[in-house]
Amino acid sequence: MAVLRNVDNPANKATDSVALRYAVAVLAAWAAELITYPFDLTKTRLQIQSEVATAKQGFKLENIGMIGTASKIVKNEGVLKLWSGLMPMLQRHAIYSGCRLIFYERFRNALKDGQGNTSLAAQSLCGASAGALSQLIASPTDLVKVQMQAEGRRLLQGKRPRFANCRQAYSILYSESGIRGFWRGAIPNAQRAALVNLGDLAAYDSCKRLLVRDMGMTDSPLVHTLAAFAAGFVAAVMGTPADVMKTRLMNQPVGPDGRGLLYRGLVDCVRQSVKNEGVLTLYKGFLPTWVRMGPWALVNWVAFENIMLAVGGKPF
What is the pTM of this model? Predict the structure, then answer.
């Protein structure tokens, strides 16, 4: 079994530094985001289009399914609208993706046994903790992203535009709710991130080590690809319900006091959604989420692993 590590060579300390690993994690996430972002936009539109709150405002369900939703966005708003909200998403990854990798590796190192291994339970705990903590830090950028993704549909409903760009979105949200308002939906957001990273980080780590250590495969792009797709599927299954609730809480209008007008909180959002749309609404947008997370994880992990190896650093 080939072990691709350069930890013991002093000349390679800089290539294994926290700063470099953070930067490479962000670059890899940016590359994955640019390729797969339209799936995220489609997923968001699917999750908010039929919620009972908008139905009460007279909104008629118009998009059904991933392909239909994407087609209507292109037809009515233009191809470039598939990347609406990309800037705050890139800002999010500049915080979230770097932090989650560093947190995970630190947590994992702290829980290693005498042989330098970590159990699946420990990996799961590390992934969930790293994801939740990183998302709490980056939550304001996710709020702006969701608001910008929903803006195109507001215009098609005949509503006045709220903002034209990312900077205006931050300004208006601040004027409506203050600093604390940027963390609206932060709890379900962190819960989703915990579940997603239980899949993405922990499942990738576990699958990769299973393939290399137990099945004797070489640490190669094939291993990275197989582990990445497994991680993407687990992340989609674990994270979609929390993602639906997070999107709805973040997308709802707010009153003068900065509180949401449609839902009193996470439990109320779940109750209304399930009561009025059925339990399967918790998996609304699952297909585009899975279709996105598989390629996203593939691009992200293959890019990260190969960039680190190219500069003489250690892989994940």
Answer: 0.74
